[in-house]
């Protein structure tokens, strides 16, 4: 396979069929990571689960894949979360090219919010004090658009520095911008405009900070 476009005619009816089989709470998504991050979704079935549609972007996991930081064949049975707080059991199957490069992915997201609420209710009713399996979901939040994702990454970067932007030194702002770069934020189209606004600096300054960060690393 040399591109996702080659197999998309096969994947699209497969997604529709699986969506009908598994029901409305199970979403199937195909991403093409050769496209701009803001529009990697090329096929989706039951998009109401995450509120996304063809032409929209992906998650923080998608950013890591596009940065070449994922080396496995996929990521399975992890907990993700929608921007409105619903929990999903998710799996991401990487679609690789002939040279092993990840070109895209097939993602499965099942809304398990009702199951979690039912389990918690049953535990309270029977007075069970059993250890709960907790999986970190913050890193895997699924946003309806890349603007929300970018703002979340910026918030993460400010929390990482640990100082409000108004009180940051130049070195702390360099660290915040470097953090965003490591997380792939600048792969999002026009990200520098939004980052500059939140960090109260110019886009030109951002590029200087990135250069400073790369020299010190």
Strand content: 15-25%
Side-by-side strand order of the widest sheet: 2-1-5-4-3-6
Structural class: alpha+beta
What characteristic shape results from the CA principal axes? globular
Mean pLDDT: 85
Question: Cα distance, first to last residue?
Answer: 36 Å
Low-confidence stretches: none
Helicity level, as a percent range?
40-55%
Gyration radius (Cα, Å) is: 19 Å
Along the chain, the helix and strand elements come as: HEEHEEEHEHHHH
Count of helix runs: 7
Query: Describe the biggest sheet?
Result: 6 strands, mixed
Strand segment tally = 6
What does this molecule look like?
With about 220 residues, the chain is an alpha+beta fold. It has 7 helices and 6 strands. It has helices at about 5-20, 60-65, 115-125, 145-160, 170-180, 190-200, 205-215; strands at about 25-30, 40-45, 75-80, 85-95, 100-110, 140. A 6-stranded mixed sheet has the order 2-1-5-4-3-6, sandwiched between helices. Helix 4 (about 145-160) crosses helix 5 and helix 5 (about 170-180) packs across helix 7 (about 205-215). It starts with a helix and ends with a helix.
Present the secondary structure layout.
Layout: H1 4-22, E1 26-32, E2 41-45, H2 60-66, E3 74-82, E4 87-96, E5 102-111, H3 113-126, E6 141-142, H4 146-161, H5 170-182, H6 191-199, H7 203-216
Parallel strand pairs: 3-6
Antiparallel strand pairs: 1-2, 1-5, 3-4, 4-5
Helix pairs in contact: 4-5, 5-7
């Amino acid at each position: 396979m040399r591109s996702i476009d080659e197999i998309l005619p096969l994947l699209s009816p497969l997604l529709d069929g699986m969506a009908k089989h598994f029901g409305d709470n199970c979403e199937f998504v195909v991403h093409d990571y050769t496209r701009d991050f803001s529009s990697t979704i090329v096929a989706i079935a039951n998009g109401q689960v995450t509120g996304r549609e063809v032409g929209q972007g992906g998650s923080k996991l998608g950013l890591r894949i596009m940065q070449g930081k994922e080396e496995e064949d996929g990521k399975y049975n992890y907990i993700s979360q929608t921007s409105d707080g619903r929990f999903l059991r998710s799996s991401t199957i990487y679609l690789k090219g002939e040279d092993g490069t990840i070109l895209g992915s097939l993602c499965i997201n099942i809304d398990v919010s009702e199951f979690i609420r039912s389990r918690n209710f049953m535990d309270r009713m029977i007075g069970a004090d059993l250890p709960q399996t907790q999986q970190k979901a913050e890193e895997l939040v699924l946003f309806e658009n890349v603007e929300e994702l970018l703002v979340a990454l910026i918030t993460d970067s400010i929390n990482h520095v640990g100082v409000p932007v108004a009180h940051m030194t130049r070195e702390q702002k360099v660290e915040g911008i470097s953090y965003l770069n490591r997380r792939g934020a600048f792969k999002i189209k026009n990200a520098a405009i939004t980052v500059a606004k939140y960090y109260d600096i110019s886009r030109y300054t951002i590029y200087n900070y990135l250069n400073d960060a790369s020299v010190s690393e």
